[in-house]
């Protein structure tokens, strides 16, 4: 047999037509099976033979014919698979299962936009020598509250609407539950960040969610002061917002820090904008010098060591940088949102 005439483009087209027609006319699975055997049986299948013969063609000829042959094979395989579904037999007939049939293209996923920003933040802090820690999302009220200087019945507990599982266990309302845990585990000096999910009984709106992400960070050593914090957070905003932005801190109350403050960065705008509401500053997170009581709970001597801690929402950073208008989108599973990142 003359192989080149066998493998002409006209011949391939003819075969495609022939098989697609036979597939469309097949009335049941056994008829479809016959078509499958005629095309792909290992010894005598017409398409299998062609694929085999391709190997022996002269390089030029091969380059010309191979893409058409591949295409032919794929068309027939897909038509067979679709017809099989149409005939209502997808699972029972094991003998006809062909693992080489390409699946329908369901698209390739990618990393969630919140995870993308978490990874970036982790890289930044890793480069400054911070450990990246993990902690429980369901935790005792000791680590959630008492450990971070919020005693039982103290009004500060109302700062967060916590989901209690029982009197002593709660879904963590902040990643600060990991402060004392980390101190007890690693002692001082200590530099760590803790990203993770937190929960609060919030009324959902564009900026509030019952489930959200936080980033805790702390640095404890001898002689640590607010100046260290300013430096780290300056570098942070320069990296994540832009080189020109400035940072400011203003007094704020959190029971686990003294003094406590909130930190903001300078808005991109020159005057009024919706993001900073005309103030020129964007509120970003809470921070402060770790309260001596918290160091003591962490078995660290507050007379020898001092440190700062901060907390902020990485989703908020992603929202600012990528102009995402609504926090609820992150957990919506909405592909129209996710596919943009
Ligand atoms: N845990 C605080 C909150 O959830 C944030 C914070 C962390 C403030 C560390 C100060 C120091 O709002």
Account of the protein in words:
- The protein has 341 residues and is α+β, with helices and mostly antiparallel strands.
- Helices cover 39% and strands 19% of the residues.
- The chain folds into 2 domains: 4-93, no CATH class; 113-338, Bira Bifunctional Protein, Domain 2 (BirA Bifunctional Protein, domain 2, 2-Layer Sandwich), CATH 3.30.930.10.
- It is built from 12 helices and 10 strands.
- The protein has a 7-stranded mixed sheet with strand order 1-5-6-10-9-8-7, with helices on both faces.
- The longest helix has 28 residues, at 59-86.
- It is elongated.
- The structure holds phenylalanine.
- The site of phenylalanine has 11 residues, from strand 9 and strand 10.
What is the percent of helical residues? 25-40%
CATH architecture assignment of the largest domain = 2-Layer Sandwich
Number of strands: 10
> Which ranges are low-confidence, i.e. pLDDT below 50, for 5 or more consecutive residues?
1-5
The CA-CA distance between the termini, in Å, is 55 Å
Mean pLDDT: 91
Oligomer: single chain
- What portion of the residues fall into strands of 2 or more residues? 15-25%
Q: Structural class, from secondary structure content? A: alpha+beta
CA gyration radius, whole angstroms: 31 Å
Secondary-structure element sequence?
HHHHHHEEHEEHEEHEEEHEHH
The CATH homologous superfamily of the largest domain is termed Bira Bifunctional Protein, Domain 2
CATH topology of the largest domain: BirA Bifunctional Protein, domain 2
| Spatial strand sequence of the major β-sheet | 1-5-6-10-9-8-7
Put simply, the count of helices is 12
Largest sheet: 7 strands, mixed
CATH first level of the largest domain = Alpha Beta
> Number of domains in the coordinates?
2
Ligand roster? phenylalanine
């Amino acid at each position: 047999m003359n192989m080149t005439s066998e493998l002409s483009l006209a011949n391939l087209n003819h075969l495609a037509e022939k098989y697609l027609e036979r597939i469309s006319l097949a009335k049941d699975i056994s008829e479809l099976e016959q078509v499958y055997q005629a095309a792909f049986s290992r010894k005598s299948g017409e398409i299998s033979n062609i694929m085999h013969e391709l190997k022996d063609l002269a390089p030029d000829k091969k380059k010309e014919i191979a893409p058409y042959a591949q295409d032919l094979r794929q068309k027939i395989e897909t038509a067979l698979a679709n017809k099989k579904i149409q005939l209502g037999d997808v699972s029972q007939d094991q003998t006809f299962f062909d693992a080489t049939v390409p699946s329908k293209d369901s698209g390739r996923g990618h990393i969630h936009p919140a995870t993308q920003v978490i990874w970036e933040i982790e890289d930044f802090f890793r480069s400054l020598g911070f450990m990246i820690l993990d902690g429980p999302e369901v935790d005792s009220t000791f680590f959630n509250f008492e450990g971070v200087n919020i005693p039982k019945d103290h009004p500060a507990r109302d700062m967060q609407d916590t989901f209690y599982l029982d009197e002593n266990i709660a879904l963590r309302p902040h990643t600060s539950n990991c402060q004392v845990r980390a101190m007890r585990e690693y002692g001082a000096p200590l530099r760590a960040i803790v990203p993770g999910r937190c929960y609060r009984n919030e009324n959902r709106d564009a900026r509030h969610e019952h489930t959200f992400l936080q980033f805790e960070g702390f640095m404890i050593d001898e002689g640590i002061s607010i100046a260290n914090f300013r430096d780290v957070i300056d570098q942070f905003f320069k990296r994540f917002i832009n080189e020109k932005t400035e940072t400011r801190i203003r007094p704020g109350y959190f029971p686990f820090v003294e003094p406590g403050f909130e930190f903001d960065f300078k808005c991109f705008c020159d005057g009024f904008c919706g993001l900073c509401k005309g103030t020129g500053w964007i509120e970003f997170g809470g921070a402060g010098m770790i309260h001596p009581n918290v160091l003591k709970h962490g078995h660290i001597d507050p007379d020898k060591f001092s440190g700062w801690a901060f907390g902020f929402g990485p989703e908020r950073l992603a929202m600012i940088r990528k102009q995402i208008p609504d926090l609820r989108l992150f957990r919506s599973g909405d592909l129209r949102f996710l596919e943009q990142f």
